[in-house]
Amino acid sequence: MQLQAGTGLQRDRWIVDDSGRFGIATSGTAASDVFYLNRDKNLAVAFSGRISNFHKIVDACNREGEDPLPKGYAALVARLYRQSGVDCIDQLYGHFSFIIWDGEKNQLVAFRDHVGSLPLFYTSAEDGTCAIASNIRALIGTGISPDSLNHEAIFHFLYDKSFIPPDTPYEHIKSILPGECLRCSPGKQRTERYYITPIHKKSMNEVEAIDLADSLLREVLEENIKDLQKIGLLFSGGVDSTLLLSMVKTLTDKPIHTYSISIATGKEDDTYVKKAVDYFGTEHTTVAFDEHVFKKHCSRIISAYPTPGFGGWHVYLGAGAAAKDDIECIISGFGGELVFGIPGFFKYLERIHFLLRFLDPSKYHQKALLNLMSRCAKPLSNFGTPGILFKIYVDLRMGINRWFNSRIAEDRLRNLFSCNAQHFTSITDRYLCDYIESRTTDFADRVSYSRMKNFEGSKILGKCNELARCNNVELLIPLMDRRIVEYGFSIPHRLKSLKGQYRYLEMKLSSRYHNFVRGKYPFTMPFDDWLRSHLPDDAARAFDPDHICNRGIFRPGALAALWKEYQQGDAELSWTDIFAFISLDMWLRTMSEHPDRTCRD
Question: Is there a contact between 130 and 77 (Cβ–Cβ < 8 Å)?
């Protein structure tokens, strides 16, 4: 059996065979962090990312009189694996993925961290060959498995604007889920869940909840900024980034650089940010984001996504500016709504009431829907049958998106495919699997768990980390550390929205560190105008009938007609519907034309 694994750092790859011989290709990165091989050459670790509590583990080993640890994350993982086996993962905090080759057991084990900060993909061949990498390009380049496309996964992407894990655009390539490991041994492989976010409500009052959040966040921030010479922070002016900035200011005297994005909308949309950075005394950079930047970087950003997708521009542009200031790591305030808030479903109950007049009631379980509406003002624990309610939640969420964002109709989308798309699984049924996995009877927690696994972990974190790495900058997201996420699931719902204030606890915690009045200016990026006027060549290529036929996904002429309808102002089509096809085309084109090229190349 031959096992191959890509470390995710450009084209690095290490190859292991039954005899224990190794062929290693490096790109000049710090080898101690990326790769470890013991003297007997029967234990190897390939590591990508950061272990937040690295120093604490090393100090504990030194106190216990153990042999000094070789420097680096990979060496630490090897030490812990020798002591605890695969349970070593329980001792680690941070954002990472790593692969362990155990020559004595003749097996390879690949781990993705607890919340899914870094992506990890795998494929296998009929002869037992297994390949694992942190980007799909490395797997395409091996030629181990056919690169046939997964039409059903593409359908889900075009409708929901993201791939539902473990599916990828390719039929034979799967993603390892957050909190999951892959075991490979001769002739077989299997995935296992080693971690499911515990959902146990703790008995605490308001002060205790704020104290706990305070101590946990300080611990996470101290661990992550300890080794940094300069500290960078993506600053939007919102609650989350302002809280993190004010806390970091109390923890270090090191220089802090902040980065924000400015949209040329004809309004002074960054006035608040300027006031805030003056108040906190940071070295600030505002990155202009306009139609020219959009056109210049669109292809590079899309090709950097782990799978085709949207968003992350602020991370990409902010990290690019940070790289010019020699910033190694940049902090993001993403995740506050998940930790300190409740599912948006409950925030928008009034909007749902309004939308029910426009949705087709035949699609829903009538009795359950009436029951939901009659109980919406009561405590969340009084909600009815969880399975039915979750289906209603997903359907109504789709309805909200369809009403406000003109999401393309599911039946209309199915008719675009060249194959029989009527048998494709619905989005709702796919989400139900994660909903059931959450191991709780609380409806709100189940919704939050499903969102964390599918949205935060698999769609946002991995994508943003890759966009930062395009600029050779590491992304730190303290609010998505598993200790903070577990805290969020332990808070009673009544504390999350006290006294009529959404995210009450976070507001109270912020008041401990600053008295600056937050006033983030909301703005919308004019992607619709940019798409029509600044991406005509890419759009024409994506919707060209001959080009589509070569891919074999859609019916000839179907997408060309869709593009024409969009240009003519079809009210049912939004820029996100159209951009999904363009993103898919650009991404697949990168894979087919340059499978060995990374964003950094």
Answer: no
Residue pLDDT, tens place only, 453-508: 666 656 678 888 889 988 989 999 999 999 999 999 898 877 887 766 778 899 99
Check: CB of residue 119 under 8 Å from CB of residue 135.
Answer: yes
CA angle 99, 103, 109 (to 5 degrees): 25
Q: Which helix (H) or strand (E) holds 297?
A: helix 291-304
Residue type, 488: G
Q: Which pLDDT belongs to residue 576?
A: 86
Which phi and psi angles does 218 have, rounded to 5°? -60, -40
Helix (H, G, I), strand (E, B) or coil at 424: coil
Note the pLDDT of residue 524: 65
pTM of the model: 0.84
Calpha distance 320→44 (Å, rounded): 33
Chain-centre distance for alpha carbon 35: 25
What is the distance between the alpha carbons of residues 552 and 546, in angstroms, rounded to a whole number?
10
Do 309 and 160 contact (CB within 8 A), yes or no? no
Torsion of CA 184, 77, 213, 442, to 10 degrees: 20
Q: Please write the tens of the pLDDT for every residue from 313-335.
A: 999 999 999 999 999 899 999 88
Nearest partner of 328 among 278, 254, 270, 274, judged by Cα: 254
Kindly tell me the burial class for residue 519, based on how many C-beta atoms sit within 10 Å of its own C-beta (0-12, 13-18, 19 or more): exposed
